[in-house]
Amino acid sequence: MEEHFCTCGDRQCPRHPANHNNGCDRCIRDNLANRRMPSCFFKLVHNDLSGQTDFSMGGFVDFYRDHT
Fold first, then answer.
1. Is 53 within the bounds of a domain?
2. What percent of the chain is helix, strand and coil (3-state, nearest 5)?
3. Does residue 22 belong to any structural domain of this protein?
4. Does residue 60 form part of some domain?
5. How far apart are CA 12 and CA 59, in angstroms?
6. In a domain, 34, yes or no
7. Alpha helix locations (H) across the chain?
8. What 3-state class would DSSP assign to 59?
9. What is the value of pTM for the model shown?
10. Rounded to whole angstroms, how far apart are CA atoms 24 and 51?
11. In which domain, by residue range, is 48 found?
12. Tell me: the pLDDT tens digits for 21-61?
């Protein structure tokens, strides 16, 4: 399988693009259904996610405010 550009470090996740041939669709679909933001959105703002535990939409807004 060709290496995907995904910035998520959780390669054990069944939705990680390295584990199937559907790109980011599974991850995005699951996160949106559960009202969460994918980690790649957070990493677009700031690459260091250490300590980040809230991946909700509100958590993303707070993360954005704290890092811009």
1. yes
2. 45, 5, 55
3. yes
4. yes
5. 23
6. yes
7. 25-33, 39-45, 57-67
8. helix
9. 0.82
10. 24
11. 17-67
12. 989 999 999 999 999 999 999 999 999 999 999 999 999 99
